[in-house]
């Protein structure tokens, strides 16, 4: 299948490679000419045969809106736009309406996998009309992990990004729990090797997970996380999850507390946030701040 891909950063660049490895024809565009296959969005559209499929992987908010606006003016009826960034689900509804007025389809895709997605595949949570989703199925099949799991058509437009938002909210709470446990183990005199305690949990325990594996990776690199500053940013999805919980009167104490813990990390050099920062760097390549 032929597809255009806009945004070739850490995620988009690896997605292009994974799709090409699966035999798909990918035309990529990025504002960095060293990464781009074409010199403009118009050039990308010209390279694609109709009906076209264009996947957008740029930051949420203004950058995504700007790309959607430009695509709306140059695409043709029956073309499809996929927003694979971390957009808010309410933006999806607006984008779908804007594009539908021009006869252009829209699909939202929550994408998880970070810097490991090229090798392991990307978990995909998709929202949109079945007609458009079915046309894109070969691309989803190439991007997802091998096996029966890692992909879902979650529902109508916005469902994909809503599901990814909740996924990220859960991720916040899980990372916070590992971080709190790590700090307590580090604090007591009786535990001599916290890193090996974490490693012992990787098999046979109910808390084993990929995040735990990544925590061990981080501790192998820096046994006491002394190289990191205890500060962790939030990228938006945690806030949106809490806001959605308030709107729907759903109690989310663990997720809400983990979001507030991130805020507290901006005031002091928090030991727990060293682990959160290390985990975010391990799975997503997110930047960390040095302790010096």
Automatic annotation (TrEMBL):
Any Pfam family from its record, for instance, is NAD_binding_2
What residues does the 6-phosphogluconate dehydrogenase C-terminal domain cover?
Answer: 160-287
The record's listing under Gene3D superfamilies reads:
N-(1-d-carboxylethyl)-l-norvaline Dehydrogenase, domain 2 (1.10.1040.10), NAD(P)-binding Rossmann-like Domain (3.40.50.720)
Q: Which InterPro entries has this protein been placed in?
A: 6-PGluconate_DH-like_C_sf, 6DGDH_YqeC, 6PGD_dom2, 6PGDH_C, 6PGDH_NADP-bd, 6PGdom_BS, HIBADH-related, NAD(P)-bd_dom_sf
Cite the GO molecular-function annotations of the record.
phosphogluconate dehydrogenase (decarboxylating) activity
- What PROSITE patterns is this protein classified in? 6PGD
Q: Does the keyword Oxidoreductase apply?
A: yes
Keywords attached to this Swiss-Prot or TrEMBL record, sorted alphabetically, are: Gluconate utilization, Oxidoreductase
Q: In the UniProt record, does the keyword Cell inner membrane occur?
A: no
Using the record for this protein, list the coiled-coil segments as residue ranges, or answer none: none
Q: EC annotation?
A: 1.1.1.343, 1.1.1.44
Protein family membership: Belongs to the HIBADH-related family. Belongs to the 6-phosphogluconate dehydrogenase family.
User: By its UniProt entry, which NCBIfam families does this protein fall under?
Assistant: gnd_rel (TIGR00872), PRK09599.1 (NF007161)
Can you say what this protein is called?
6-phosphogluconate dehydrogenase
Q: Which organism is it from?
A: Streptomyces griseoviridis
């Amino acid at each position: 299948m032929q597809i255009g891909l806009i945004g070739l950063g850490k995620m988009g660049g690896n997605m292009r490679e994974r799709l090409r490895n699966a035999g798909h024809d990918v035309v990529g565009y990025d504002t960095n000419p060293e990464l781009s296959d074409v010199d403009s969005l118009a050039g990308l559209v010209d390279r694609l045969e109709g009906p076209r499929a264009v996947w957008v992987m740029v930051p949420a908010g203004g950058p995504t809106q700007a790309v959607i606006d430009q695509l709306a003016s140059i695409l043709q009826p029956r073309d499809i736009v996929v927003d694979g960034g971390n957009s808010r689900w309410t933006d999806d509804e607006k984008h779908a309406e804007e594009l539908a007025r021009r006869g252009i389809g829209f699909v939202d895709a929550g994408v998880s996998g970070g810097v490991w997605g090229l090798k392991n595949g990307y978990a995909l949570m998709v929202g949109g009309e079945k007609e458009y989703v079915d046309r894109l199925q070969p691309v989803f099949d190439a991007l997802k992990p091998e096996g029966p799991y890692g992909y879902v058509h979650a529902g109508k437009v916005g469902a994909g990004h809503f599901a990814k938002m909740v996924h990220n909210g859960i991720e916040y709470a899980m990372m916070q729990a590992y971080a709190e446990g790590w700090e307590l183990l580090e604090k007591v005199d009786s535990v001599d090797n916290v890193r090996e305690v974490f490693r012992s949990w990787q098999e046979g325990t109910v808390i084993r997970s990929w995040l735990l594996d990544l925590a061990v990776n981080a501790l192998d690199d820096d046994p006491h996380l002394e190289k990191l500053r205890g500060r962790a940013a939030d990228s938006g999805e945690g806030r949106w999850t809490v806001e959605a919980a308030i709107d729907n009167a759903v109690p989310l104490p663990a997720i809400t507390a983990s979001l507030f813990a991130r805020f507290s990390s901006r005031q002091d050099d928090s030991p727990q946030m060293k682990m959160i920062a290390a985990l975010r760097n391990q799975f997503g390549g997110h930047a960390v701040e040095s302790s010096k």
